[in-house]
């Protein structure tokens, strides 16, 4: 692959990564949120959150059993 082909592929890849929100937070929350239009992509965007554990000495507190 030539250098110019590599540069073009990198530019296209970076251009595909840019995204701007189309809706406000208020429009996308609540009991009847407005959903953005479906956007079909060749490679789907996946934003994986970084996994973090509980702080030392702390654990979740379960709810009391009903009844």
Task: Give the arrangement of secondary structure elements.
Layout: H1 3-17
Provide a short characterization of the protein structure.
By secondary structure, the chain is an all-alpha fold. It has one helix at residues 3-17. The model has no long low-confidence stretch (mean pLDDT 83).
What do you see in this structure?
With 67 residues, the chain is an all-alpha fold. 22% of the residues lie in helices and 0% in strands. The model has no long low-confidence stretch (mean pLDDT 83).
Question: Helix/strand/pairing class, anyone?
Answer: mainly alpha
Low-confidence segments, given as residue ranges, are: none
Based on CA atoms alone, the radius of gyration comes out at 21 Å
Instruction: Work out the strand percent.
Output: under 5%
Helix run count: 1
Shape verdict: flat
- By DSSP, the count of extended strands is 0
Output mean pLDDT: 83
